[in-house]
Amino acid sequence: MSTRKVDQSALKVNQAFIIGLLVLAFLLDAVWLVALVAVVMLVGTAVHSLGLFKRIYQHILQPAGIVKPHVIEDNPEPHRFSQGLGGVFVALATLALLAGLPAVGWALVWLVVILAGLNLFLGFCAGCFMYYQLHKLGVPGFRVSPIR
């Protein structure tokens, strides 16, 4: 399978929104904001063109020159997997918070914040790493190899 191009700036904007909104949710104790981030992440994973944070990048930040594109040769699947996994964790955090388990809920939120921060600031995508390890093990559905 041939590789495609991925705009790293779009990914970074997505991560920045996730981090910013989840930290704000924690500071405000706003479960509804955690739920909103979960929905945005899961919808953006399921229907890539509907990713709200990506659309903000494409239709506002990029045209205004606030963020410049940084397109590289990359596979989009590991990034989608990573976002989907993060979205599941944020959805579970929402359920925990609604169930009266704030320690569990906020711990899951902070796990996503830390992992998104690793990617945003250090360029290490834990979900991408997991994706490629699952590919290496031959798990069905994990079909693309890392770019050499």
Question: Can you characterise this structure?
Answer:
With 148 residues, the protein is mainly alpha-helical. The chain has one domain. Helices cover 69% and strands 5% of the residues. The protein contains six helices and two strands; from the N terminus they run E-H-H-H-E-H-H-H. It has helices spanning 8-28, 31-46, 52-61, 76-98, 102-122, 126-136, and strands spanning 4-7, 71-74. Strands 1-2 form a two-stranded antiparallel ribbon. Helix 1 runs antiparallel to helix 5 and helix 4 runs antiparallel to helix 5 (102-122). The mean pLDDT is 95.
End-to-end span in angstroms? 13 Å
Going across the biggest sheet, name each strand in turn: 1-2
Q: Oligomerization state of this entry? A: single chain
SSE succession: EHHHEHHH
**Proportion of residues in helical segments:** 55-70%
Largest sheet: 2 strands, antiparallel
Keywords:
148 residues; mainly alpha; two-stranded antiparallel sheet; 2 strands; 5% strand
At a glance:
By secondary structure, the protein is mostly helical. Helix content is 69%, strand content 5%.
Describe the secondary-structure layout.
Layout: E1 4-7, H1 8-28, H2 31-46, H3 52-61, E2 71-74, H4 76-98, H5 102-122, H6 126-136
Antiparallel strand pairs: 1-2
